[in-house]
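pinging the channel bc i need a second pair of eyes. not urgent but kinda urgent?? the chain im working w is below, pasted from the shared doc
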Amino acid sequence: MTPNCFRNHNYDSSSTRGKVFHIVGHVFVGLLFAVAFAIVFALLVKLIWNSLMPAIFDLKEITFWQAFGIIILAKLLFGSFGNHRHDRWKKDGRYIPPWHRPSGKPEADTPPSRYHPDWKTYTQYWQEEGNAAFKAYMNRIEKEGKEN
């Protein structure tokens, strides 16, 4: 089966050479976009730095390469490369809600949710006890408000 990226193009799909050129073309375009983004971002950092920092903190203006270095340094100091959401996702890509993650908290502290095992009984509880308790609470609040 041919992947979607190789379908509907003007080259012979059985040609290995055509597939290689297609992949190399995608990689080249991706690299061009990455370089263009890096240049624009570094120019933006340079522009913002040179318009604010000398006036506020009496610092020198910076060059393009210094701005680029600041971006790399900030990325290394304040955030690293790669995806760091592994603690919230299962290996099959499903999100794990906070109350299902091991946290050492007792189960009573977890909020009800459709992911929670007790969710199926929550509606029945609300209909039988929760609604009446809420109405009693609201009546008490109204009485306290009238007394004050």
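so DSSP finds three helices and no strands in the chain. and The longest helix spans residues 16-57. — does that match what u expected or am i reading it wrong
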